[in-house]
Amino acid sequence: MKFDIPRIRTLTTGRLHANVQFVYEDLEAIIGEQGLMTHMLPRVMKAVEPWLRQHITDSRFWEDVYDTSHVGEIEIPDPTVEDRAAIVCFPARGFGIALNRSSIAVQV
Fold first, then answer.
1. What is the pLDDT of residue 98?
2. For residue 79, which of 6, 26, 74, 83 is within the disulfide window of CB 3.0 to 4.6 Å?
């Protein structure tokens, strides 16, 4: 998967570097499911962080700053079925996300 750097920095820093619609699109592409809702974004972002850290090792992506000079594209491998299973089962602050057939469900 190829991402614009500002879009992926939104996921890695938690600071909006691109249009918010890209947050939905990029997270859905990573987890392989559609239908994320706004209240799910923080949990899903936390859940994909270990996978992103595994594939994005450049420390600049993880600096907690808003940086408009960090531009271009980055290639990240497509998540495997195993990667996606690990992502959706990741407990984020006492909550987990689980696939519920064709939609995403939040487990409490």
1. 52
2. 83
Nearest to 27 by CA among 76, 100, 93, 95: 76
Residues 96, 108: Cα–Cα separation, whole Å: 7
Token pair recorded at residue 10: 């939104």
- In this predicted structure, the answer to whether residue 46 has a pLDDT above a threshold of 70 is yes
Residue type, 18: A
Nearest Cα neighbor of 67 from 13, 31, 105 is 13
Q: Which two tokens stand for residue 90?
A: 């990741």
Asked whether the whole model's pTM tops 0.85, one would answer no
Q: How far is CA 7 from CA 20, 28, 72, 75, 81, in A?
A: 9, 13, 10, 12, 23
Tell which phi-psi region holds residue 94, choosing left (phi > 0), alpha (psi between -120 and 50) or beta. Answer: left
- Beta-bridge mates of residue 92: 95
* Residue 95 β-bridge partners: 92
